[in-house]
Amino acid sequence: MSPNFDCMDLEALTSNAKQIQDDVLKQILTLNANTEYLQRYLHGSSDKELFKKNVPVITYEDVRPYIERVANGEPSNIISGNSITGFFLSSGTSGGKHKTFPMNSIFFENLLLYKALSSPFVSKYMDGAKKEKEMMFGFTRPLSKTPSGLPVSGGVSSFLQSDYFKNQPSELYSSPIDVTLCPDNRQSMYCHLLCGLVQRNEITTSGLQTKNAGTL
After folding, report:
1. Cβ of 8: how many Cβ atoms within 10 Å?
2. Residue 204, SS3?
3. How far apart are CA 173 and CA 166, in angstroms?
4. Would you say 135 and 174 are in contact if contact means Cβ atoms under 8 Å apart?
5. Residue 115: helix, strand or coil by DSSP?
């Protein structure tokens, strides 16, 4: 379930953005300084200034070999201090080709955090939004697998099929979870619309959650 926030929480988070960004960078460096990728630049240090001086700005192609090695069964600590539990695909809209990114539970937790932070502002400026009944058009496809057996899918599709989404209170959405997880998107759309029509007097917001799928 998403954590509860109010508008003051978001104001506090944004009033000291530099310190928060520094703290987040410190956490990232502390966690990942000993990975194979960063070890050659930081030699185990989590110092911010050393990071700024030694770690170059790169493109996706620079890290793709490391990602592929993990996908093929090598340990996560090649590129991540946390265990990699799956991969999500980018939309491919910028370069015309999907990019594959490693992920773990932090990815899902951040999605829930984003929703929790935005909800107070929606409730503040939209009458009735505190009821938080959303008509969400969620669509998924079956997950594919890497050679090592890790799941691969679009980021949103991965979230919709995770326990983080399934364990949210059912009253938050007009459609039951079975509609979102239906593999036939035409049937899913029909049911989303039907559920929304039946509950039209209760719905306060709407959204679209798209899907993506592919193999590495």
Report:
1. 9
2. coil
3. 11
4. yes
5. helix
